[in-house]
Design goal:
Length: 345
């Protein structure tokens, strides 16, 4: 019979993983009846917490861990968002004399949860920041939570979860971008969706649809294709959209890598950007200013989000701040040379 996990206890007791962790670690602020219910579930399941994990609450290093999806797993990856997260996290750590542990991991690996547990047991950090898309994967979040380590989720793709989160205005900013393209006279605005595992990127798809409605435009199925957030998928999707008789006059991609792939394909096909085709992306990574023409995009506040998350964890470790609720930091529309007025039909 498989060994019971903290998830099993939480399900049987009908409480959150965080509540089970508080009971296991003997933390206060748990109602007596709830504590008793959790203890009964522990006894019934014969749940045995990892001893070293239980000790983490009392013996923690002045260290914050940043866990993110390894960008090297993607074709022609862009690590721009990782660098900016690190910058923000380092800024917060330095201000409080903490150190930052960065750990890229492959969420596709079967051993990723054991890998994270081992990492936490070895370094005993004061807290963990989990970046998207890992932040919206229950197995990843549970693996960290099971150790009793405080955590913050970055861009989890939704609000109201068990753990404190820091997000940005993906949906609202994408609606704004779509309205901006419509204001330039574009009526055939295509959209390239991102990887299905990235729930935050899914918010951009929702924003695109809202922007069309607000601009008085109808959603056309032939103008929507799906990529995987990579440069190569941007090329493939761009070819699908442009290699047709009635092609779009604007393409909005769910991230900058895919938008850059569209610009390359347009150049290959002799489609001038922005004279014949406007292209927009999202994230404002370094690549957005390196491509030609420079990319109109949505600046995601990765550094500010990471800084906010780390500051919250450090405040919690010093018992000055609770880790409850959600924080939202607004994204910003950045207009550059890749967009312009719609060409004449």
């Amino acid at each position: 019979m498989a060994r019971a996990t903290i998830n099993d206890v939480a399900e049987l007791a009908a409480v959150s993983i965080k509540t089970v962790s508080r009971v296991v670690n003997g933390e206060p602020n748990v109602h007596a009846s709830t504590r008793a219910k959790v203890q009964r579930a522990i006894a019934k399941l014969n749940y045995r917490p990892n001893p070293s994990a239980r000790n983490l609450a009392s013996v923690r290093a002045r260290l914050i861990g940043l866990i993110y999806d390894d960008p090297s797993a993607y074709q022609i990856p862009s690590a721009g968002y990782v660098i900016r997260m690190q910058q923000g996290a380092l800024r917060a750590c330095k201000a409080s004399s903490y150190e930052l542990l960065i750990h890229p991991c492959n969420y596709r690996s079967r051993s990723v949860c054991d890998e994270l547990r081992t990492l936490i047991e070895q370094f005993r950090p004061a807290g963990i920041v989990i970046a998207a898309p890992l932040s919206n994967m229950p197995k990843i979040v549970s693996a960290v939570a099971e150790t009793g380590t405080p955590l913050v989720r970055l861009s989890p793709g939704g609000k109201g979860g068990e753990h404190y989160s820091v997000a940005t205005t993906d949906r609202e900013a994408s609606a704004e971008m779509t309205r901006y393209l419509a204001s330039l006279g574009h009526t055939r605005i295509a959209f390239i969706k991102g990887h299905r595992n990235h729930k935050a990127v899914a918010g951009r798809w929702q924003g695109y649809q809202e922007g069309l409605i607000e601009s008085g435009l109808e959603l056309a199925d032939e103008l929507v294709v799906t990529g995987d957030n990579s440069f190569g998928s941007g090329e493939t999707c761009g070819m699908q959209l442009l290699d047709r008789e009635h092609r779009p006059t604007a393409i909005f991609a769910a991230n900058d890598d895919m938008a850059a792939g569209v610009i390359r394909v347009a150049d290959r096909l002799g489609v001038r950007v922005p004279d014949e085709l406007s292209v927009a992306g999202c994230d404002d990574i370094a690549l957005a200013q390196q491509v030609y023409p420079a990319l109109t995009t949505i600046r995601q506040p990765f550094a500010e989000m990471a800084e906010c998350a780390v500051t919250a964890l450090i405040g919690h470790s010093r018992r000055r701040q609770d880790l409850d609720g959600d924080e939202t930091i607004a994204a910003t529309l950045i207009v550059r040379d890749s967009t312009g007025p719609a060409s004449e039909p």
